[in-house]
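Subject: for your reference before the review

Hello V.,

The reviewers asked for a structural picture of the protein, and I figured it would be easier to keep everything in one thread rather than splitting it across files. Below is the amino acid sequence we used in the manuscript, unchanged from the supplementary table.
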Amino acid sequence: MTGRVYLAGLPLADGYRRAAGRLLSAAGWDVVDPMRRDFRGRTEGNEAEIVEGDLADIDSCAVVLADFTAPDEGTAMEAWYARSAGIPVVAYSGGAWAHPWTVYVSASVHARLADAVAAVAALPARPTSG
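And here is what came back from the structure prediction:
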């Protein structure tokens, strides 16, 4: 299956975003990177725009690929929201210990990014709203 995939992760995880984007694009996925709306250094006063934009992006996707290589409230909230909305979450841990909440909200957890992308591709088809 291919479709739209949302890249959840730390705002400064540029390497993850580039690598995941390349792998997912090569597999035929449309990548939705919320950092295209880059609010780094100017989040104060823009919280509603940031969160509402992220939620709309997640709703438009068939799956969320979440970078859980380091703790991050935003990534955790995005994963929880997606799971609550019935959108599968695939977690990339980079080999880091997976918190019980990460395991709970994720369809699967993978130490290697390539394995996480393969797991995204193996998910059953789900229509998207975007």
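For the response letter, the relevant points are probably these. The chain has one domain: 4-39+48-122. The radius of gyration is 13 Å.

Happy to draft the paragraph if you're swamped.

O.
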